Amino acid sequence: MTSSHEASTLRQVLLAAQRLLEARVDHMITAEEWEALTNAVNAATARSATGPDESFAVDAASGALLRRVVPRRGQPYEHMCTRAVYEEVAHAIDLMGSAAFTLEEIRATVGGGDESKMPPWSQVATAVAFLKERSCIVPGRERKHVAATDDTWLDAMIEYHALREKGPEEAEPSE
Q1: Residue 1 DSSP symbol
Q2: Closest alpha carbon to 132 in 121, 114, 145
Q3: SS3 of residue 77 by DSSP
Q4: Cys-Cys crosslink for 153: which of 90, 96, 130, 158, Cβ 3.0 to 4.6 Å?
């Protein structure tokens, strides 16, 4: 699945390519055409102004899901989520059914309500961010999310293995 940001970027690249082809067909390029082409290319290649640059990878040795974030301000950071916690988060979302849920509710469900058995916040947040990026869960109202399908665990495993199969070279964001 493609994230909405990736889909928007791809649409902008397509638009830029179409405008270039239109300009080449006429063999006359006006200032307006060049400006439109420049704007489309800039929009397609610009970093998101609304949030951090985020990428995911699967650690080949441990199988952990890695979340790398380059914030607009501050230092880049990385969080990880073990595969076991990732699967538990996906199962917990399935238990929610069609009900909206928060990160706190997922963490509590995974830990069975016992604080000592709950996974670290960063691991749950990493799993939820990846599931959201891959459209396995979608935003609801306020800070809540809802499952996109009836089998979040299956969707989560498909996306995990798809990312794992990409390998570390392709999983890294290209600039």
Answers
A1: -
A2: 145
A3: strand
A4: 90
- Token pair, residue 144, equals 């809540």
First vs last C-alpha separation in the chain: 21
Domain 53-169 has CATH 2.40.420: no
Nearest to 57 by CA among 31, 30, 78: 78
CB 90 within 8 A of CB 156: yes
Fill in the amino acid letter for 132. Answer: K
Distance of alpha carbon 19 from alpha carbon 16, whole angstroms: 5
Question: What single-letter amino acid sits at 98?
Answer: S
User: How many Å apart are CA 11 and CA 8, to the nearest integer?
Assistant: 5
